[in-house]
Amino acid sequence: MGECSRLTRFLMVSAMVSLCSCAEDDKEKSGRKSSADPETVSSLVASEELILELTPRLKSFKDALFTENCHFVGVDPDPVQKKKYPGLGTVETHWKQLDNNEPVVGKPTIVKITGPAGELKFMDINFSLVSGKFGDEGGNIFTTSVSFSGSTDNSSISSVNEVIWGRIGSSWKINSWRVERLSALSSSGTFFKEVLDEVLPDKESLSRARTSMHWRILIDNYFGGKKPTNIPKYTDTRFYPDSINTHPSVSIVDIDGNGYDDIYICVRWGRNQLLRNKGDGTFEECAARYGLDVSGRNTVALFADFDNDGDPDLFLGRSLEKSLYMVNEKGFFRAHNGPVSNGKLPWLVTSASSADYNNDGLLDIYICTYSPLDLNTRLQDKGNAPQWARQFLSPEQAQEVVKRKVNDHTYLNQIGPPNILLVNRGSHFEIAPGSVSVAGYHNSFQASWADYDLDGDQDLYVANDYAPDQFFRNDDGTFVDITSSSGIDTLGFAMGASWGDYDGDGDQDLYVSNMYSKAGRRITAQVPGLDDRMSAVAYGNFLYRNDGDGGMKRLSGADGKPVPVHLAGWSWGGMFTDFDNDGFLDLYVSSGFYTPPPDQDNGVDL
């Protein structure tokens, strides 16, 4: 329990000590001071450590988990709601527990829990302990909310359950299980099929496409309680330690103009790959043929016709190398010798997005940057590798980072490297005159352009990690920060932003990918007077509806908002698209962080 215990205490300390101190440091902003008294701390530690202890036992779902006289209550067999989605060939069904359902003596089983959904052959099942609290002063009763999920070939099942545990000697067992709600989503067939083995016949290319040295090095260096270090067989020190949470990317481009989409894969280790679509249902790896087999440290590939000659060029964002602008010269990509006339392309890049923000007919680029380690400490010659930060920033940028230290807060306003706005001059780029106004100096994951106010120019939303997001209105090429005035006033640890007119009213709405954490919700809910900003970081994803008069109204989040699109875990780059061609935008949201190898999984479920 050591690893779990340390993680729990970290969450507790983050919420109640480090983070609660922000209420004192920023009391003029928050208006009150949190009161994490010793009794609250003790109760939180006890409940969280018990949740960590019980979670792996719950996931195993063995018969010994229950008392002999365990009571069980299922849902009513008649559904309370059934919806059909013809475009997707799916049916959604909901059941709930009736108020007069009587418990029966008998241990729960998967068949009992899923009840009216029928006997199903599950490919996988999962139990999660969402919340818990002690039900008596002696700490011998623990009432929990448990979620269940499972999937078959063509359906998914989920339920919400009230589960009561009792202490028996030094052990805990379940003495009551009540299924409060059950939902099932079934389809006539699978939506997608994984076909890489079929479409990439060359074995060497297939092996490269399926191998992530980034993941392999991370496991070798960081899992199993080992102190982070460079293992001798990995000779490139640029990997360690500053890029462990900087990720590669995939881009789609018709590289040869044959009408078929090709796939370009950025890698952290090795060389980038180009899977050219041959038009017969198969792909070939041919990055070298096009000059695109660039060596690692690549994080984003943005293809667009930047020089207006009719073919795609490439901005290649990189982390521990300087980024590249590569011009397409009759099908072969060459790095531009002087891509920025009044500066340099940045390092530490996480993403890039293009738009013609000044309406001159040329695509411009906004570049997001992120420093995994504390810049300020290193710029002041403190901590490990103080020279690290200076090689990535100009003297002026470094000076600005240090200047902003006074407003730095590790969790609520983390200072980072500047984002860059490049204005396209046709044959090259310049750092735009307005770049300073949109630099941010936070750790940014993604920025997204849209004409949100329908005035004919592109506005800019920037998703920041460990800091408030920023929303800039474009007023004829000059950017104005309208974050607060537009209604974007809730902090989330954002990792993506997507625009789309989901309600069909003619203007662009916004979906922001944040983090949802069961542990975060549990802890922040139990700290009296906690700064609202700290509670908000565990709300999950935000859907903002554009009200058409300059305001954005948040309609999703774990604080009781009406549209349930917030529960997507640790989310990255959620996107609007119309999957079923019914004319309405759907959402796809990727979720997760690192998946440990089975022998290193400590069972922690955040």
Q: What is the strand and helix layout of this fold?
A:
Blueprint: H1 2-18, H2 21-25, H3 27-30, H4 38-60, E1 66-73, E2 81-85, E3 90-96, E4 104-105, H5 110-114, E5 124-134, E6 141-151, E7 155-168, E8 171-187, H6 196-199, H7 203-210, H8 213-222, E9 250-253, E10 262-265, E11 273-277, E12 283-285, E13 298-304, E14 313-318, E15 324-329, E16 332-335, E17 349-355, E18 364-369, H9 375-379, H10 387-390, H11 395-403, E19 420-424, E20 429-431, E21 443-450, E22 459-465, E23 470-475, E24 478-481, E25 496-500, E26 509-513, H12 518-525, H13 532-536, E27 542-546, E28 552-554, E29 571-577, E30 586-591
Parallel strand pairs: 1-8
Antiparallel strand pairs: 1-4, 2-3, 3-8, 5-6, 6-7, 7-8, 9-10, 10-11, 11-12, 13-14, 14-15, 15-16, 17-18, 18-19, 19-20, 21-22, 22-23, 23-24, 25-26, 26-27, 27-28, 29-30
Helix pairs in contact: 1-4, 1-12
Short structural description:
This protein is α+β, with helices and mostly antiparallel strands. 18% of the residues lie in helices and 32% in strands. The protein starts with a helix and ends in a 15-residue tail after the last strand.
